[in-house]
Amino acid sequence: MDNFDEFSMVGKDLYALGLVDSMSGSLSMRIGDRILITKRNAMLGHLKEEDIVEVPMEGDGGKEDAAAKELQVHRAIYRETNFNAVVHAYPAYGITLSISTENKIIPADIKGQTVLRSIPVVRAKAASEELIKFLPPVFKSGYVVALVKEYGSFAVGGSLIEALQYTTCLEGSCKIFAVNRSLAPVEKPRRPEHHERRTAIPPSIGVMGRPRGGSRGFGR
Q1: Of 153, 190, 169, 61, whose CA–CA distance to 115 is shortest?
Q2: Start-to-end C-alpha separation, the chain
C-alpha cells in the first residue's frame, strides 16, 4: 500500500464510521524529516492525491498555508515523540464527554481499559499555542489518544491505520461510557415521612367521658 492509498483508506473509514464530517479532521504521516498532511478543509472521505501536501518538519516549505490548520500541532507531536502518524477526528460521543469531564475518561469496557487505559482530556483552544504546548506531552508520556475539549480527538501510531484503530477504540469506549451513565438508575428523592395526626377529642365529650360543665350528681 502506498502513502496515498493509506490516506484514502483511513479517510474513507473515518467518514463511513461518522468520526469526521465533510469539513472536519486531518491526517498526517512522517516521512524522514518531511510530513505529508491533508489540506485545509479537505474532505477526508473523498480524498484525491492533490489533497495531500508535503511540508518540512521545521521551517517554511511554501505549502504551509494550504495544509490543515492543525499543522503546527502535528509538527509538535512529531518533534516530541517517535510516532509516524497522527489522526485528528471529530467523534461525537468523545467530544460530548470532553465537555463535562475534568481530566480523563476511564473506559468502562475491557477493550478500552486494555488498549487505551484512560483517555486524557486537554483543555485548550483549537490549533492554539496552548494546544501545541499541552498535547504532545500527553503522547510522550505513553498515551495513544487524547480528547481536546469541545474540539475533537487526536490519535498517534506507527501508521495511519494504527492511529485509526485507536480512534475507533476511543469512540467505542466513549459511547459505552455515555450510554452506561444514561442508563444508571437515578435515586428518587425520599418523601418526608408522614406522621398520622391524632384526631382531637370532639368538643361534645368531656375529659375521660365526663359531661362537660356538669357534676357527678353530688349535692352542693
Answers
A1: 169
A2: 124
Q: Which pTM was predicted? A: 0.82
Question: How confident is the model over 65-119, as pLDDT tens digits?
Answer: 899 999 999 999 999 999 999 999 999 999 999 999 989 999 999 999 999 999 9
For residue 61, count CB atoms less than 10 angstroms from its CB and return exposed for 0-12, middle for 13-18, buried for 19 or more: middle
Fold topology of 3-183:
L-fuculose-1-phosphate Aldolase (3.40.225)
> Could you give the C-alpha distances from 148 to 50, 99, 128, 198, in angstroms and in order?
29, 9, 11, 62
Q: Are strands 119-122 and 145-148 parallel, antiparallel or unpaired?
A: parallel
Can you tell me the distance from the alpha carbon of 77 to that of 63, in angstroms, rounded to the nearest whole number? Answer: 19
Which residues lie closer than 8 Å to 167 by C-beta, 6 or more apart?
Answer: 14, 19, 87, 89, 91, 145, 153, 155
